[in-house]
Amino acid sequence: MNYIEKLASIRQLMKEKGVDAYIIPSSDPHISEYLPDRYKCIKWTSGFTGSAGTLVITEDFAGLWTDARYFVQANEQLAGSGFELVKLQVQGKAEYVTWLGKKLEKGNTVAFDGNLAAVAVAQTVQQELEPLGIQVDGHLDLLDPIWEGRPALPTEPAYLIGVETTGESTADKIKRIKTQMQDKRVEAHFVSSLDDLAWILNIRGNDVHCNPVVLGFLLITTDKNTLYIQSGKLAEADVASLKQSGVEVADYEKAFEVVQTISANRILLDPKRTCFAIYDAVPANVDIVEDMNPSTWFKSMKNEVEVAHTRNAMVKDGVALTKFFKWLEENVKTGELSEISIAEKLQGIRAASEGFVDISFDTIAGYKEHGALPHYKATDDSNSTLLQEGLLLVDSGGQYKDGTTDITRVVSLGNITDAERQDYTIVLKGTIEGSQAIFPKGTKGYSIDAITRRPIWETLRNYGHGTGHGVGFFLNVHEGPQVFNMAAVDIPVEPGMISSIEPGLYREGEYGIRIENLVLSKVIDSNQFGEFMDFETLTICYIATDLVDKSLLEEKHINWLNDYNAWVFEKLSPSLSAEEQAWLKEKTAAI
User: Fold this and answer.
1) Domains plus CATH for the chain?
2) Which of 2-6, 89-93, 336-340 has the least mean pLDDT?
3) Cβ-count burial of 193 within 10 angstroms (0-12 exposed, 13-18 middle, 19+ buried)?
4) pTM, whole model, 2 decimals?
5) Distance CA 58, CA 121 (A)
6) What is the pLDDT of residue 9?
7) Residue 374: per-residue pLDDT
8) Which of 48, 127, 316, 432 could make an SS bond with 353 (beta carbons 3.0 to 4.6 A apart)?
9) Where is coiled-coil annotated (predicted)?
């Protein structure tokens, strides 16, 4: 079926089931951002491949609600699908619910598959629409009956990693979680989110592209801990190791059954990281305590072992990037390079590094106007050939056994305009301001966002995505709970958190600029005014200076840039050849 035929089939099923509006979130039973092929429902239904969005289908309208990162991409990918782009005003907000409230009438029915909707999303739908007399059915899957050849669940093996890598044993992590459970007076805690499960059990897998996680659920009770995972994914030695840590292993599908028969008085569920199907299966006599998974908070603050490993991974990544940018500069003149070929080359260079496992997300290699698409991924149809002119944006990262990286750099391929140079320098000022921030302990991410945006706002410019996100340790490249954006998220920046700082500027149809480093938050002083923190920059890769308009920078910006590039040379040069050292020495020369 093509997209129009799929849409017609869904509408036919809606008519048969008495459904007036059907919601398809971008999610899976674990409320993941990046999905196994089986749960790429939005891509299958509409052709849109972005990692954030919601489809809403009514009798006479079909729309994709997504944010500014994907506006151009969505317009292109939805062409001819029967779906229209609806631009979100606030990133992450369920604005389609308000639209449904105006669109539908009393007595109408809205439905969605509870396996794909987070509890928080399902509750928003119920709380806004049911008072209007609109019925809500959260247990209807209209895709599976028509999805011919739907992919099965992945069967790749999973494996455990040692305490010498993680810095904390599974038994000790569960002990910390059980202390939190006692404080909340709950006897059971159900964990659905894959990165939480991976962190708690020191387990990694290959079930999701670019994310080293394994599909599973974890039930922690006062006297028992059970991992629900597909049979055969763990070696017998790993099953025995988990048992020694107090964790039994059971079949993946039994997780849904055990929730229905749980005997606890109170159970802890994270409404943002648990699907509605699990939530609604909890017996009525069991009180549900809705709160963030303790592990989400714990894993955001890296221990000394994780930080040390991450620093090592950053050196390897910086060496790979240096080799790549040198190769790019020397070969662009051939006229044979393209967005796809350079992404493949970069992955190949990274893959030669010790401990490399995979890329941490699909490389964004955006040449000229494609750089203005924040989450661009080149396809055979869009693949641009690189010329000796214009800007190239490369946003990439690696998964190493000792850390996760995420970095964006912009380089000139020749004939740069004054406007491009000005925009680049303004973005660089934002990156520097965010990196140099000093702030009291307890500061929230929206303050860091504002500090970073200030020099960009001053020029009456802005960007439509967040300034930064948390990053896992050999885990998901997007990790919470901290986030640096304009939303009033009540999560403080704590010591040990690794986050990105990545302001940008995008001129549709022309070019895009983003300069991204990862930083570690640290306490620097404690005095009568409280504790104060700053950021240690972890990413080690030169920032291009040939694009800088020095007249737009203050002395503090120039000093930071020169010091940073000098540090990059110092850290990377021992791992480079003499020729590579000479090339990098020139790139990191002070301005």
Assistant:
1) 3-137 (3.40.350.10), 159-296 (3.40.350.10), 301-557 (3.90.230.10)
2) 89-93
3) buried
4) 0.93
5) 19
6) 97
7) 87
8) 316
9) none
